[in-house]
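Intended use. Records like the one below are meant for learning the mapping from a protein sequence to its folded structure. Do not use them to infer anything beyond what is encoded.
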Amino acid sequence: MSHNMEGWIISREGFEDIKADGFKLSNVEPLPQAFVLFSCEYERTSDGVLAVQFSRALERPEMCIAKVYTEYFGGLGHQSAQVWKDSILIFDESDEDPDSYFRKSSPISTALQYLGVWRSKEGTDEFDALNLGNFRDYPSYDY
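Structure written out for the chain above:
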């Protein structure tokens, strides 16, 4: 079974700020704990530039936004995540990093902690708390 996902995650409040600023948002999925997963159509713009543009659209500059990526097939693969706060990249991690084996949580779960996601029950992580495992083939846009 595969899991391929590339998208942005932010609180619902932050999502409303970004939406009001006129970005071409798509594949909008409400998540538990008042978060939203979405894609954004863009041409020749890096994730970093887009994150800065999103950050500038937020009413609250202290709010974080995360970009998450998974690519797994048959249990093998990798994931990565980045988090921006007030237009600054504050977290950038991949499980392909040599020292990732020694970390307590996955890159995506750590990124979600920056956003304020909490584990919903014993034996789960932040990825599970937002039901991200349900998005087996979440689309993204590459131009």
